[in-house]
Amino acid sequence: MKGTQLRTTLIAALAFAPAAAVLAAGAQDHAGHAMPAASAPIGKPGDAARVTRTIDIDMTDAMRFTPASIDVKADETVRLNVHNSGKIRHELVLGTDADLKSHYDMMMKDPGMRHEEANAVSLEAGKSGAIVWRFDKAGTVSFGCLEPGHYAAGMKGSVSVL
Ligand SMILES: [Cu+2]
Questions:
Q1: How far apart are CA 10 and CA 162, in angstroms?
Q2: Which residues on neighbouring strands pair with residue 129, listed in sequence order?
């Protein structure tokens, strides 16, 4: 009995943690919604006039990005041309693993949320979109599809900034 109570308390604590993080960041709106403030630098929105490279990324209902692994140079401004060749909605959101994970937990509770920020593109079946991003520091920037079930099924990838 005691074990069950403890587990219930833990589940409740986990369930509320992401919402608390967003409230702390003061970053929710109802038109779309904002990502919580990034916990580590991932770069910044790029200037389309300074794009030095375009990379095509395909998203499928197999819950995969192709390619799932990308190399860019530090300070490079890249256009990610993203296409959804599946039959359901997918999205590509850039972030740290921690940001993506906590945001995914929120999406599980509010599946209607749509991403409209510069670091994300959310696409209906058959649609294409783009993210222009400046990867300013060496390191790894992750990306994922935060539609419920997708991220957990492995719909994720990474950008190595060299
Ligand atoms: Cu997806």
A1: 40
A2: 82
> 59-90: per-residue pLDDT in tens?
999 999 999 999 999 999 999 999 999 999 99
What is the 110 CA–ligand 1 centroid distance (Å)?
15
Judge contact between 116 and 20, C-beta under 8 A.
no
Q: Write out the residues surrounding ion ligand 1, Cβ under 5 A.
A: 90, 145, 147, 150, 155
- For 151, the token pair is 């991220």
CATH label of the domain that carries residue 146:
2.60.40.420
Enumerate the H helices of 1-96 as residue ranges. 2-25
Q: What is the domain range of residue 104? A: 2-161
pLDDT band at 116 (very low <50, low <70, confident <90, very high): confident
Q: Is the model's pLDDT at 107 over the cut of 60?
A: yes
Q: Give 70's strand partners.
A: 159
- Look at the chain and report how many structural domains it folds into: 1
